[in-house]
């Protein structure tokens, strides 16, 4: 029976619309004013969609990449051997990983899929059979992402409620980590969604998230769409909001988490974490285990992508008219790294990683080994 992603979420927005042989991605550059889906026919379309921010958010990037190749090979006229099929798939996966180097979910997905197809090739000589195994594996990733997000939401809502005696909580988030950034439901925004469903959310605050405005365009859009009480603030207003006592917790997503807990997320996250630490506001990272990169000892090893100067020089994240002075130089990193000592806990689909009793450090490797 052909897989269809429309069953994933009846009420939440869908960034990824998939059925076997067909993939459409919501063009998030046009939100919130237009809702346009782009047809993705192959891995080249997938690469361009990721690079040009049609789809964004570490989990969604990984799923979109995997499915773009699934659509390509499903529709491909191919008579090669299993070895030929593995070679083709591996090259395409390596190509897709280059679209956004900071998000570990993408490279993690590619590594897992390479292993799946290598194992398949050991049991068959038919190239089409290897393709089918790949397609099945990519579809499982789509299903698993939604289940993981719901678990993250549940664990996150629970830990945040445990940290306070308040009956109603206000939570601040940065960037977009909802159903638009995942296969459905969301990570950090999934935690906010779970708090709202439990009737304990007073208000969700979202930052604009300049220069691409994922907060004002996407997070605000999701909050309004699902009738979650929300307020949009300027990035630079986060500290003042905390000082005024309006924030009970901060929860953000992650593109890559090093083995010591240092976390790469959208630029501006580090500033929010510093403000939270100063004002004694708990600061949580919500991310699936696929966002954890145990090969990195610290955040200093995380490669930070730099975006086009146009995103700062022009309106609409670089797509509109020029507003900055001609000739000015630009530094535009897409992400920053929040040190682990500023993070209260890392919320995953397997539970919350907290600091060890011996000190102010995470033992992420032990948590992964215990729950993996």
From TrEMBL:
EC number, as in UniProt: 5.3.1.23
Keywords carried by this UniProt record: Amino-acid biosynthesis, Cytoplasm, Isomerase, Methionine biosynthesis, Nucleus
Catalyzed reactions per annotation: 5-(methylsulfanyl)-alpha-D-ribose 1-phosphate = 5-(methylsulfanyl)-D-ribulose 1-phosphate
Pathway field: Amino-acid biosynthesis; L-methionine biosynthesis via salvage pathway; L-methionine from S-methyl-5-thio-alpha-D-ribose 1-phosphate: step 1/6
Top EC group: isomerase
Active-site annotation: 255
GO biological process, one term: L-methionine salvage from methylthioadenosine
Domain of life of the native organism: Eukaryota
Site residues (Transition state stabilizer), renumbered to this chain: 175
Stored InterPro entries: IF-2B-related (IPR000649), IF-M1Pi (IPR005251), IF_2B-like_C (IPR042529), Initiation_fac_2B_a/b/d (IPR011559), M1Pi_N (IPR027363), NagB/RpiA_transferase-like (IPR037171)
Entry's Gene Ontology molecular function annotations: S-methyl-5-thioribose-1-phosphate isomerase activity
GO cellular component: cytoplasm; nucleus
Primary location class: cytoplasm
Compartments where located: Cytoplasm; Nucleus
Family stated for the protein in its record: Belongs to the eIF-2B alpha/beta/delta subunits family. MtnA subfamily.
Function: Catalyzes the interconversion of methylthioribose-1-phosphate (MTR-1-P) into methylthioribulose-1-phosphate (MTRu-1-P).
Name assigned to this protein: Methylthioribose-1-phosphate isomerase
Organism name: Glycine soja
